Amino acid sequence: MPRWESNTRERLEAAALALFTERGFEAATVADIAERAGLTERTFFRYFTDKREVLFAGQEALRDRMLAAVTETPAGTPPLAIVEQALLAMTPIFDARREVVHARQRVVHANAELRERELHKMAMLATLLAEALVTRGVPPTTATLAAETGMTVFRLAFMRWIETGATTSYAESLRALFATLTDVVTATGA
Amino acid sequence: MPRWESNTRERLEAAALALFTERGFEAATVADIAERAGLTERTFFRYFTDKREVLFAGQEALRDRMLAAVTETPAGTPPLAIVEQALLAMTPIFDARREVVHARQRVVHANAELRERELHKMAMLATLLAEALVTRGVPPTTATLAAETGMTVFRLAFMRWIETGATTSYAESLRALFATLTDVVTATGA
């Protein structure tokens, strides 16, 4: 993608997030977003099908990176360790776009319909992850359990990373939650 | 509740499940259900607000039993073991109503809107379970992780129990999945 195209997409994204934050997702229109970015509506629609897509288009890149990490993990790696590697593979994207990711999350969290869509996307990611494990020879029940447990860990680690602001990295937060999972599952008494 | 009332509710439930199975959830009306049960629509509405509630009303009893089990578990029990006890507490209800539970599940599974509602109910159960753990002094992140992981185990165990028909008990299926979870989380190499 030529540099100016990438820049146009980023300008539209930044304008949309700023408006969603200021006015709420419902109140901001595509016309408002294009105007704020100093671009036309026509240009907006060359990059996104609607204003909701501004919030969810980036997930395809995350998904692709996650699934690539599953195939790249050495043979013999246990299923949950593969899932952890897949989730850690998203670190560069999250770290490079911390502000955008945080702003996006606040917008999604504030709107019931967007939260539903986010949950649905997470469920789909878990399914894709489980399928990728099965392709590597992991039995289906183990694969589903590892993928869904991993997504629960991811969701909590991601939330904590958002909440702690700049003090923790995404990777640290994820590793800490995986350690908590091990404690929770192996605890034999208090 | 006097015996005949309980019986009326069960007749309506059985008639509804039979019709949902034969015609699909959308096509069966409250009038059809009442007629099949040999009762009036007015009687139907004394027990259920709509036909969807026939499928979901029973979940309140399950929820109450689960949360009661959390409070009854001895002090010092580790969080995930509390969750396992809570999920095992539903065994008598499931075992006594195996056919009804199976038929209900097939109806829910066949309809996208009902599946969504079921997912939503499961998410709410996980939240209630986590809150009950926090009330017992479990730290919030550990509580959420234990509750959500437990609900994932429950969902898979329940599906497997449904799939295996009469050959496995719900409790056996649940225990087997908790054992798989321990294997998945503690595996250090294949």
Give a verbal description of the structure.
2 copies of one chain form a homodimer. The first copy, chain A, has 190 residues and is an all-alpha fold. Chain A folds into 2 domains: 3-53, Arc Repressor Mutant, subunit A (Orthogonal Bundle); 57-186, Tetracycline Repressor, domain 2 (Orthogonal Bundle), CATH 1.10.357.10. Chain A is built from 11 helices and no strands. Chain A is elongated. Chain A binds chain B through residues 75-81, 119, 123, 141-142, 144-146, 148-149, 152-153, 156, 160, 177, 180-190, and chain B through 75-81, 119, 123, 141-142, 144-146, 148-149, 152-153, 156, 160, 177, 180-190.
What's this entry about, in short?
Chain A is mainly α and 190 residues long. The first copy, chain A, is built from eleven helices and no strands. The first copy, chain A, has two domains: 51 residues, Arc Repressor Mutant, subunit A (Orthogonal Bundle), CATH 1.10.10.60; 130 residues, Tetracycline Repressor, domain 2.
Specify which chain pair forms the largest interface. A-B, 32 and 32 residues
Taken as a percent bin, the fraction of beta residues of chain A is: under 5%
The CATH C-level name of the largest domain in chain A is Mainly Alpha
Distance N to C terminus of chain A: 56 Å
Got a strand count of chain A?
0
Oligomer classification = homodimer
CATH arch. level architecture of the largest domain in chain A: Orthogonal Bundle
Q: At the fourth CATH level, what is the homologous superfamily of the largest domain in chain A?
A: Tetracycline Repressor, domain 2
Quick one: biggest sheet of chain A? none
**Which whole number gives the mean pLDDT of chain A?**
90
CATH level 3 topology of the largest domain in chain A? Tetracycline Repressor, domain 2
Indicate how many domains the architecture of chain A comprises: 2
**Unreliable segments of 5+ consecutive residues of chain A:** none
Radius of gyration of chain A in whole Å, from Cα?
18 Å
Tally of DSSP helical segments of chain A: 11
Helix-and-strand structural type of chain A? mainly alpha
Query: What shape does the CA trace of chain A take?
Result: elongated
Order of helical and strand elements of chain A: HHHHHHHHHHH
Percent helix range of chain A:
over 70%
